[in-house]
Amino acid sequence: MTARTFRALHHGRALGDPLVLPGPWDAASARAFAEAGYPALAIPSAGVAASLGYEDGATPPDEMFAAVTRIVRAATVPVSADVEGGYGLTPGELVGRLLETGAVGCNLEDSEGGTTLKDAQRHADWLAEVRAEAGDALVINARVDTFLVGAGDPADAVARARLYTAAGADCVYPILAPPELLPVLREGITGPINMVAGADSESVAELARWGATRITFGPAMQRYAIGAVGDLAARLRDEPLPRLRA
């Protein structure tokens, strides 16, 4: 399950035929998604956090890397991991720990604590260091948080994305960008663009129509699954048991 295999899945895709990557949060969900026939998986940090009992962004690095290791071990396809802002690790430490898990890709975000955008040039310089440490062993998906914590300016998103691809990112991820802005982003950005979908086929189809190269789900699948478990628990609690015949 090499980064080369995973990287190749991002290229040569026809418009309307995105790479769709389900988001496992534990070994069991990873196995289910792989057995369903998906070519690769993308772990959401928020889904893992919820499964471990943490708020999004609060998972200790050791627990996150351990969870990624279990997911990779259970999957039979390439796995990418969302490692948030890198947990304060040096590029060498971050790459080393990722490669130890068996992951072949990663998400790296350009905001601090999900509240403030980082300086784009400094972040690009840091991404370049990560790329230098990783060589071609990791597919780097550089998150662009302009629409999450910034002013939502497409020009800013494009400028950031260009810096990050120049620094060696394989793909950019303008999280929460409105789908209708995808043509503008595609015009200004060279390379694959990741968009986030809800846990429904209509959301995926819409992003495909607008031109997403890669589609992930964040924690949507984990939340859908927990909702289904909650519904089942409520039915079992509330439905009367059948009366036994005398």
Please state the average pLDDT score: 96
Structural class: alpha/beta
| Form type | globular
Strand order of the largest sheet: 2-3-4-7-8
The largest pleated sheet is described as: 5 strands, parallel
Total number of beta strands: 10
The end-to-end span amounts to 60 Å
Order of helices and strands: HEHEHHEHEEEHEHEHEHEH
Helix count from the secondary structure assignment: 10
Poorly predicted runs of 5 or more residues: none
Radius of gyration: 19 Å
Helix content: 40-55%
The fraction of residues in strands falls at 5-15%
Question: Any chance you could write out the topology, listing elements then pairs?
Answer:
Blueprint lengths: L2 H6 L10 E2 L6 H9 L5 E3 L1 H8 L8 H14 L4 E4 L8 H11 L3 E4 L2 E2 L3 E2 L2 H15 L4 E6 L9 H13 L4 E4 L7 H7 L5 E3 L4 H10 L3 E3 L3 H19 L8
Parallel strand pairs: 1-10, 2-3, 3-4, 4-7, 7-8, 9-10
Antiparallel strand pairs: 5-6
Helix pairs in contact: 2-4, 4-5, 5-6, 6-7
Descriptive keywords:
about 250 residues, alpha/beta, five-stranded parallel β-sheet, three-stranded parallel β-sheet, 10 helices, globular
Architecture overview:
It is a single chain. With 246 residues, this protein is an alpha/beta fold. Helix content is 46%, strand content 13%. It has ten helices and ten strands. Strands 2-3-4-7-8 form a five-stranded parallel β-sheet. Strands 1-10-9 form a three-stranded parallel β-sheet, covered by helices on one side. The protein has a two-stranded antiparallel ribbon with strand order 5-6. The longest helix is centred in the C-terminal third of the chain and has 19 residues. The protein is globular. The mean pLDDT is 96.
